[in-house]
Write a structure and sequence with these properties.
It is a single chain. By secondary structure, this protein is α+β, with helices and mostly antiparallel strands. Helix content is 30%, strand content 18%. The strands form 4 sheets. The chain has a 5-stranded antiparallel beta sheet. The longest helix has 17 residues. The radius of gyration is 24 Å and the shape is globular. Bound molecules: iron/sulfur cluster (2 copies). One iron/sulfur cluster binds next to loops.
């Protein structure tokens, strides 16, 4: 009783802003056993069995989703949750959807129904005790569907990559965790700064200033202040801005402030590949991702150049890494020279870091694959 009261007190009072308290949507078994879980085991790829000290057992069944889904798909997902999971489900931060089962007999029928109705594969898990890892879904950003500054798409390119890496999602075939992320511009909403493999949309041309649009729609001081490199200065006589192209790094910050200076370019926009980042501090400190391919073309609808590069990096690592060795640790052991040698990726001056920083950061934040002696 005391515990129930505690939950109720946490949930109240109701307000009209912010998300509802998470406990409201918890499966009753999870709520009842909060803080009491003893252990878990992976029954098969995509299915995790969680056992509580109270004796309760819950099976969590995980499926990959395309993230952007129609309302019809959401309704189908909810119907399946009603049928198998007492009406409860949850989305993970990497766009997997999970159902909660108390009856193990329902696992196979659930997997069959989800695959038949929705086409979502079961997987995305790993068994750390055995050192067998599956690939989780790719975390990604908005892309051409929604955002205003993308240099590449998000969902389209991620779908193409995951189609190619499908078997790694549905099975445990990797030596360690591998997090793949995509951000469609340098604002990097998609965790690409610290992922094992990252795809980042890059612009390669400065914005084109439409003086008339700037005059009519933009606030000049905030547009100038938005530029991190000081490439913009006000032209108050003409009520517009002047751009120093040599200082521009094509970040798109000014376009966020001012729609009168778009920087899209179908020919020059593309995708950079970064690797060897990680957030976890297990065995090895957290690492920033480093650029290993400066630019690949936007080639929709299937982005073959990007897909093959990501696959090559993943499979080279999987073939050469030791158990539990993430990409950052693997590269650190073999060295960047060997990495470029065995992946066959080209090392160019574009990968050499020339970003000026304070000496302290220079020696501690190694962010590129640049060779330093
Ligand atoms: S990464 Fe850039 S383009 Fe993509 S959603 Fe974020 S701000 Fe928009
Ligand atoms: S794209 Fe970025 S660096 Fe270039 S002018 Fe705009 S804000 Fe400045």
């Amino acid at each position: 009783m005391a515990e129930e009261k505690e939950w109720e007190e946490t949930v109240e009072p109701k307000t009209d802003f912010g998300p509802p308290h998470y406990s409201i949507m918890m499966h009753p078994i999870i709520k009842k056993n909060y803080g009491k879980w003893s252990y878990h085991e992976v029954v098969r790829p995509g299915v995790i069995k969680r056992v509580s000290e109270t004796g309760d057992v819950l099976y969590i069944v995980r499926f990959g989703t395309p993230r952007l889904v129609s309302v019809y798909t959401v309704r189908d997902i909810c119907d399946i949750a009603d049928k198998y999971s007492d009406g409860y489900l949850r989305f993970t931060s990497r766009h997997n959807v999970e159902f909660f089962l108390t009856d193990p007999e329902k696992i196979e029928p659930l997997i069959s129904e989800v695959q038949e109705k929705l086409g979502f594969p079961c997987g995305g898990t790993w068994d750390a005790t055995k050192g067998e890892y599956g690939l989780s879904n790719i975390v990604h950003t908005q892309g051409w569907v929604h955002c205003h500054t993308p240099a590449t798409d998000a969902s389209g390119i991620v779908k193409s990559v995951m189609d190619e890496l499908y078997d790694y999602f549905t099975d445990h075939k990797l030596p360690a965790l591998c997090r793949i992320s995509l951000a469609c511009c340098g604002n990097m909403c998609g965790a690409v700064h610290a992922s094992d493999i990252s795809m980042v949309g890059v612009h390669r041309k400065p914005p084109i200033i439409d003086d008339d649009a700037v005059r009519r729609t933009c606030e000049i001081p905030s547009t100038v202040a938005a530029c991190p490199t000081g490439a913009l200065k006000p032209d108050m006589k003409r009520k517009t801005v002047i751009l120093d192209k040599d200082k521009c790094m094509y970040c798109g910050n000014c376009y966020t402030m001012c729609p009168g200076m778009p920087l899209f370019d179908p020919e020059n926009d593309g995708v950079a590949i970064l690797i060897a980042g990680k957030v976890s501090d297990a065995r090895y400190p957290p690492q920033f991702s480093k650029v290993v391919v400066p630019w690949l073309p936007n080639n929709p609808p299937r982005w073959p150049e990007v897909v093959q590069t990501v696959k090559k990096i993943l499979e080279t690592w999987a073939a050469h890494a030791e158990k539990y060795e993430r990409i950052a640790e693997w590269v650190d052991r073999i060295g960047w020279e060997r990495f470029f040698e065995i992946t066959g990726l080209e090392f160019s001056e574009k990968l050499i870091e020339d970003y000026a920083r304070t000496p302290y950061l220079y020696t501690t934040f190694r962010t590129s694959a640049a060779f330093r002696w």
